Amino acid sequence: MTDLLLDERELRFQLYELLDTEALLQRPRYSEHDRGVFDATLTTARQIAAELFAPHNHKGDANEPTFDGERIHMIAETKAAWDGFADAGFLAAHHDFSDGGLQLPEVVLRACMAYFNAANIATVAYSFLSIGATNLVKAFADTTLRERFLPPMLDGRFSGTMALTEPGQGSALGDLRTLARPANDGTYRIFGQKMFISGGDHELTDNIVHMVLARIEGAPAGTKGISLFLVPKFLVNADGSLGARNDVALAGLLHKMGYRNTTSTVLAFGEHDGAVGYLVGEAHQGLSYMFQMMNEARVGVGLGAASLAYQSYIHALDYARQRPQGRLPDNKSPLAPQVRIIEHADVRRMLLQQKVYAEGSLALCLYASSLVEDAHTASAPLERRNAAELLDVLTPVVKTWPSRYGLLACEIGVQILGGAGYTREYPLEQYYRDNRLNPIHEGTEGIQAIDLLGRKLGSRGGDGYRLFVAEVLATLLVASKDTRCAPLAARLADALGILEQVTVSLQAQVADNANLGLANATPYLDIFGRVVMGWIWLRQALLGSSALDAEVTGSEADFYQGKLQAAHYFMTWEMASLESQARLLMDANHIAYYMQDRWF
To answer: Which of 30, 263, 341, 384 has the lowest tally of Cβ within 10 angstroms?
Structure first.
């Protein structure tokens, strides 16, 4: 069933109706493009995903990479997929023509990535990480490093990673202990160990460029003492040729329940004389630089979760339309033919729940990618600044909502298939296992919640939040005048009012006692996320209503009617518990906070 990737009609709707991606052609950077270029790129991505990624998704899961003490072994199809991705120019797609790129908008690249995620999220992880590492080098490395490392990273000869986590610390990066000792030649020698480094070792490329957070000898404690280093697996000579093996060793592979074809590694830096590392940017500013790659990865993780949710949905839908099972409750005749399971109301309920999670998550992630684009290429400085602020406050939601509810969509998909969903003969169980990592990837849900409530709505002053509220109010104004959407707008307006009340309440609680105030940050993030998704669904419903007003017919009418029905479901069912949950937060209910260790 490798032909079941993303629905092309859905993707066109997201890109050209909900986001108006075609309007980007008016910006100077894209003046040489047209919609045909965007569509051709998407078609190429779909073809490569279907031909080189999807066919070995199950095989890579069943035959994960191994380490014999000297080298990594993985299925040959992984290398073919990497080469196909690189040869088509996707590693450099959003870079300038002058750098060998295709100069594509960020949102078009990420729509392409959705195809690859849907086809084989474990194999495309190598490319995903390399794109982020390349962006980091381009943004902050000096000219010498850029000239030496960017060309081979852009054309696929080198891959990249991010090396943050250590055995003694995970999200608490201020406690990392990897040491950087200055050398006489202006480089550094890196000593320490990193773990859970995805793509940390393999033989897909000639070299691997590790972006490593470390503390320069004598640096201050905490996050203010962290610096960023470029540490290659093999040293690179001035002429671009490979030199000696750097003092970076694979200490072992970790074995996860999903993403199995992505090597998850423990790397040892400096087991001998120290790994040669090159300081990126200024000393002690490493964490601020790395946030670029981390935030990019957070949006990417959300998109990966959305893609897996969508895969689960369309496979479950396909199965439900084909599988005969039982009869409707009002049919008591055992001789009557069985009906397809999609005719059972409870199955349609589950499918509708999957639809709102999968399509909503995809829309949210592509919207976030459009904000990335606006933050870089919008014509007015204020527009660029506002896009960056809005993206900043929404990033925790973009990362966590698809990860949490996309996983639930996968769980529902298994349930729809019943016993078949629990077998490896169908891909649903793998989608669930693969997606289970995403609520952990790039900061757990709790970390994102504290970031939102404690930093972005606290010390930052909430500028992005106010921009978000303004966007929602603008949509509500339009929707309130639409007969079909006015009831939906009323429900979202109520939800927005609740969100504003609980936000003010929790900000006061955090100011009074940060430990107590942030104890329920994750439920707050969930409330915030549901309001964001309500807005996303209201915008889709408005487009559906306009299309029906224009009297579209046939499959097009069905498509837009489906959008309206999904929006009604979301506003009615997914918003139902919001008020009671908000009341608990505003009442400063800290039952969990006061639970004692010894009581468990």
So the answer is: 384
